[in-house]
Every structure is written in structure tokens, then in C-alpha cells.
Design a protein that fits this description.
Blueprint: H1 2-20, H2 23-29, E1 36-38, E2 41-44, E3 52-53, E4 58-59, H3 66-79, E5 86-90, H4 97-104, E6 108-113, E7 127-129, E8 142-148, H5 167-177, E9 178-190, H6 196-200, H7 203-207, E10 215-223, H8 237-240, H9 243-246, H10 252-261, E11 265-273
Length: 276
């Protein structure tokens, strides 16, 4: 009973947060640099994040797992300003924070979701069936494309809504629907689930997906990689049970090291469409 009540309260709190967060407030909160550059990566340590309450030494986002808190923070940081932009979300699900921020800031939100019936075709300003490998829109339709906790699932072997997708094909499809110079934003959990390169945190392999001929201004961020003074967030035994289904390219010693030492963190990728 107590667990059910707590879950319901968390759900209500999450919905209220999504309904009340405003673009202007987010812009103000995220206007100053909140990262440190380390080896060509933006590192957002918990103690530097604007959501960190220094007095109470805790994250001020009051719902969700440590990973979900980072997702919320990153959405606000990256998607609060979409004025006059046509924006596509890949795998929009039920969490509406990004959608609300885009619309409130004067942008047009459109979404595709692979778990919807194929008969429900999307149209500009509305959601419908589609995924990163099959985006049912014309070339150069969008100023921005983004995916929240979607990227890691494209090439996943198990528990997916569609057959495993090829990452190069997905990025080419996204590039096709982006206008020249259009922006891409993606995030994914590291040491959690999905394709093996995300479970293992193989940043060189992930970065290599973004070829210079197709993408420019590629920025990688690590949220909660340095979680101090907050608690670590080790991958659960339940999540690790899925790993043998996904991991085939790494040695048992490498996998054991991640199982023993890893704390889950959030990867974000930003890039712009290059070329004609």
C-alpha cells in the first residue's frame, strides 16, 4: 500500500512539473556554463548542475531515479528555446516535459512512436507511428530532431517494438528530414540497457557514428559521471540480466569490470546537419 501511494505521488509530481515548467525560467537557470571541458567532453558533475541544492546537498528535482533527474535537467537545458522551430521527437512516449517546453516557447512539436498502430500516421503538430529508421515526412521538414532515451534502443536485440535498426541508416534518415544546418539532440543512459556500446560506455564507438561528412559541431556531455556528493547509481541486478542478450563484442573481463564498478550516468549528443 505504501509503495503504491509513493508511486502515485511520484507520478502526480512528475505531471505537475511538466505542466508548470516554463521556458523563460529554464532559460534563466541554464544561461551560465554548467559544465567543465574534460578531454573534448562536457562533463556536468552533480555539484556543478543548476539543479543541485548546495544547502541540502541533494538534487532539487523531487521525482524519479537519479537517471531520470538528469534527463529532466538536460531536457530543460537543451530544449527550452524552440521559438518558430519545427521540431520532431523520436519515440515520444508519455513524458511530456519536452513537448510542453517546445510548444510554450513558440515552436511546433511533432512526434513519432513505434508502439503506436501503423495506421496512425503522424502529421505536423501531432504524433503518430514512426521510428528513427522510418520517419514518414518529406526531406528537410524539421529545424530540430530529438530523442529522449531512444538512441540506445535503435540497435537493441531484445524487448524492442521493431527489429534492431542500423545506426548509420537511422542517422541518415534523421539527416534526410532535417533542414540544412538543422540540429539534432539525443540522450541515452550509460551502463544501463540497450545496445552494447551504451551498456559498456564505449564513447569512441558512439562518437564514430557521427561522420564529419554528415554531421558537424558534435558535442558529447556526461551528466552524473561525477555524482559526488550524491549517491552512486549502480545498474540493478534486473537490468544486468539483459546484458548477455546484448553484449557480444566485449571480453568477459570488460563486462565484469562494468558490473563491479559502474554507476549509471546520462550521455547527451548534440550535432548539426552538415552538407547540402
Amino acid at each position: 500500500m505504501i509503495a503504491a501511494m509513493h508511486s502515485k505521488l511520484q507520478s502526480i509530481t512528475k505531471r505537475w512539473y511538466s505542466l508548470t515548467t516554463r521556458p523563460g525560467k529554464a532559460k534563466q537557470q541554464w544561461s551560465a556554463p554548467y559544465w567543465q571541458d574534460i578531454d573534448d567532453i562536457r562533463d556536468i558533475a552533480c555539484k556543478r548542475c543548476p539543479k543541485f541544492n548546495k544547502g541540502r546537498r541533494e538534487c532539487s528535482i523531487s521525482f524519479g531515479t537519479p537517471l531520470r533527474k538528469c534527463v529532466v535537467a538536460s531536457i530543460e537545458a537543451h530544449l527550452h528555446d524552440s521559438q518558430q522551430l519545427n521540431v520532431l521527437e523520436l519515440g515520444f512516449g508519455r513524458f511530456t516535459l519536452a513537448r510542453n517546453l517546445i510548444r510554450r516557447s513558440g515552436g511546433t512539436w511533432t512526434g513519432v512512436e513505434p508502439r503506436l498502430p501503423k495506421s496512425r500516421r503522424p502529421r505536423i503538430g501531432h504524433g503518430g507511428y514512426g521510428h528513427a529508421g522510418e520517419i514518414p515526412f518529406e526531406n528537410a521538414s524539421f529545424d530540430r530532431v530529438f530523442g529522449i532515451q531512444s538512441l540506445e534502443h535503435w540497435g537493441q536485440k531484445a524487448y524492442t517494438a521493431v527489429e534492431p535498426l542500423n545506426y548509420a541508416d537511422c542517422l541518415q534518415e534523421i539527416r534526410r528530414v532535417l533542414k540544412p544546418g538543422g540540429a539534432l539532440y539525443l540522450d541515452a543512459p550509460i551502463h544501463f540497457h540497450g545496445h552494447e556500446m551504451f551498456i559498456m560506455g564505449d564513447l569512441p564507438r558512439i562518437r564514430a557514428l557521427f561522420t564529419p561528412s554528415a554531421w558537424k559541431d558534435v558535442v558529447i556531455e556526461r551528466w552524473r559521471f561525477d555524482h559526488q556528493p550524491l549517491e552512486a547509481y549502480p545498474p540493478s541486478a534486473k537490468v544486468q540480466k539483459e546484458w548477455p542478450l546484448e553484449i557480444t563484442s566485449y571480453s568477459p573481463e570488460e563486462v565484469e569490470r562494468v558490473q563491479r564498478d559502474a554507476s549509471v550516468w546520462l550521455l547527451t549528443l548534440s550535432a548539426s546537419r552538415s552538407g547540402d
